């Protein structure tokens, strides 16, 4: 399993922009793009669940080199809450209904741009990890909260 690299984010940004996909970098990959010192094995994307956006997403993923089965394409088009893709140039988690964030539109209003990429606001990243309440999130949350405080002092 490879780790998340900035090149993965650049590739997503370039291809998704070309296809007009509306999304946000989320979870650890989003925090890392904001400057959080950590690693992750996959790219986490919070994707707008509109039908037209999901259609564009399928085309963009195929262009990136993901080998999507018919079932995966159908799940993406339907906006299944959470989809893990392990059949492409890097590991990718598609999140259509993250814990702790009610609506994509609200997260979009709060998002930040960095490196020319749309990234979920740190408060949404932290809030989602708190709401998910998974063991690994509980373990990393103190460091992420500390990063959030540091980041807010920078802005």
Structural notes for this entry:
By secondary structure, this protein is of the alpha+beta class. The protein has one domain: 2-Layer Sandwich (Beta Polymerase, domain 2), CATH 3.30.460.40. 54% of the residues lie in helices and 15% in strands. The chain has helices spanning 6-19, 27-34, 51-64, 70-78, 104-110, 122-132, 135-154, and strands at residues 23-25, 42-47, 82-85, 91-95, 112-114, 117-119. A four-stranded mixed beta sheet has the order 1-2-4-3, sandwiched between helices. A hairpin with a 5-residue loop joins strand 3 (82-85) and strand 4. Helix 2 runs antiparallel to helix 6 (122-132) and helix 6 (122-132) packs antiparallel against helix 7 (135-154). The mean pLDDT is 95.
Give me a quick take on this structure:
This protein has 155 residues and is of the alpha+beta class.
Layout of strands and helices, then pairs:
Layout: H1 6-19, E1 23-25, H2 27-34, E2 42-47, H3 51-64, H4 70-78, E3 82-85, E4 91-95, H5 104-110, E5 112-114, E6 117-119, H6 122-132, H7 135-154
Parallel strand pairs: 2-4
Antiparallel strand pairs: 1-2, 3-4, 5-6
Task: Give keywords.
155 residues, alpha+beta, Beta Polymerase, domain 2, 4-stranded mixed sheet, two-stranded antiparallel ribbon, 7 helices, 6 strands, 15% strand, globular
> What are the low-pLDDT stretches, counting only 5+ consecutive residues below 50?
none
CATH class: Alpha Beta
Radius of gyration: 15 Å
Q: Label the overall shape.
A: globular
Number of helices: 7
Q: Tell me about the biggest sheet?
A: 4 strands, mixed
Write down the secondary-structure element order. Answer: HEHEHHEEHEEHH
Percentage of residues in strands: 15-25%
C-alpha termini separation:
35 Å
Q: Give the second-level CATH assignment, the architecture.
A: 2-Layer Sandwich
Total individual domains: 1
Q: Strand order of the main beta sheet, please?
A: 1-2-4-3
Enter the CATH topology name: Beta Polymerase, domain 2
Structural class by secondary-structure content: alpha+beta
Helix fraction bin: 40-55%
